[in-house]
Design goal:
This protein is α+β, with helices and mostly antiparallel strands. The protein folds into two domains: about 140 residues, PUA domain-like (Roll), CATH 2.30.280; about 150 residues, Trna Endonuclease, Chain: A, domain 1, CATH 3.40.1350. The protein has six helices and 17 strands. The strands form two sheets. Strands 1, 2, 3, 4, 5, 6, 7, 8 and 9 form a nine-stranded mixed beta sheet that branches. It has an eight-stranded mixed beta sheet with strand order 10-11-12-13-14-15-16-17, with helices on both faces. A hairpin with an 8-residue loop joins strand 16 and strand 17. The longest helix is centred in the last third of the chain and has 18 residues.
Length: about 300
């Protein structure tokens, strides 16, 4: 079988590669029938838009999601072949999608030593609303390589704040928000700003992780985080408590408060208190605020969110 040869930037039909070198014709990771090669077919723009890391990062590596459409990804089949390609003597060639069935040759890569892969939360390819455990590989260039888009999803381990957003920019241009949780955060931040509190959105990447944790609102002066929840139901509040505790942990915040769209029923309130969190919600034409501001529950003038105005 002839050696694989292509110039950086060449556009190649995938079917032509398989016709000569064999291998699986559909999966993104395709060990050739000839044991010397492993081909990786990626679509950086489409994959990143779907929430799956795919692109170059600041560490100089190509980060690409593994195989597995719907469930937690596991280290077997194509994923295992990619991880072990170097020790098995297979040259790894990467191609990026141009259009259906056609790919641009990006060059030769090899699995990165030290941290060859990591795990992240990733949307299911068959049900985007379902989040599963995904594998992301780190690949180093192994010679000259072509241009590959920069990943917007990869955040390097130990990064501090990678984004801060002023409260006034949390609203959409037309003054309305697309989701109730966004509306809650924006309204709360704006009205708290009138009281002298500077609440900002930010993102933090924990040590040993490559995925940033989004912090909806953070008061840096007091070390207090605020997490909006789109429903006051028990199920939604349970999930919000978990999110708040994780955000509190990664930021080192001393306190965390849930922002609910309405006053929770008594037992849900006890659940929040049991978790050691505060809770605020819109009340009539104002916000019901926790005792840290006034020595007891109070309201601060704010427009009712039911009108979607902030």
């Amino acid at each position: 079988m002839k050696d694989f040869s292509a110039n950086i930037g060449d556009i190649i039909d995938r079917s032509a590669i398989h016709a000569v070198y064999g291998g699986r014709t559909q999966p993104r990771i395709s060990p050739a029938g000839d044991a010397r090669y492993l081909f990786l077919f990626i679509d950086p723009i489409g994959e990143e838009a779907a929430g799956c890391p795919s692109g170059m990062a600041a560490d100089g590596c190509l980060h690409v999601a593994g195989e597995g459409l719907s469930r937690d990804q596991v280290m077997k089949s194509g994923n295992l072949s990619l991880l072990k390609h170097a020790e098995e003597g297979k040259a790894l060639h990467v191609l990026t999608k141009v259009e259906k069935g056609r790919f641009r040759y990006a060059g030769r890569f090899r699995i990165a030593p030290g941290a060859p892969f990591y795990r992240v939360d990733m949307p299911s390819e068959t049900s985007p609303d379902v989040i599963r455990d995904g594998i992301v590989f780190r690949l180093q260039p192994d010679g000259p390589v072509g241009a590959i888009p920069r990943s917007v999803l990869v955040s390097l381990p130990g990064d501090g704040t990678v984004q801060k957003t002023g409260a006034e920019t949390l609203t959409l241009p037309d003054g309305k928000a697309s989701r109730l949780d966004v509306a809650l955060a924006a309204s709360y931040a704006l009205w708290m700003a009138r009281l002298g509190f500077d609440l900002r959105a930010m993102s933090v990447t924990p040590d040993d992780e490559y995925q940033a944790v989004k912090v909806p609102l953070y008061d840096e002066a007091s070390g207090h985080v605020y997490c909006p929840c789109a429903s006051s139901s028990r199920a939604a509040v349970r999930n919000a408590i978990g999110e708040a505790m994780d955000i509190k942990r990664v930021t080192g915040a001393g306190e965390a408060t849930l922002l609910l769209p309405s006053e929770p029923r008594e037992d849900v309130m006890r659940l929040v208190e049991y978790a050691g969190l505060g809770v605020d919600w819109p009340h009539d034409t104002g916000w019901h605020l926790s005792s840290r501001l006034s020595g007891g529950p109070s309201t601060v003038g704010a427009r009712d969110l039911r009108g979607s105005q902030m």
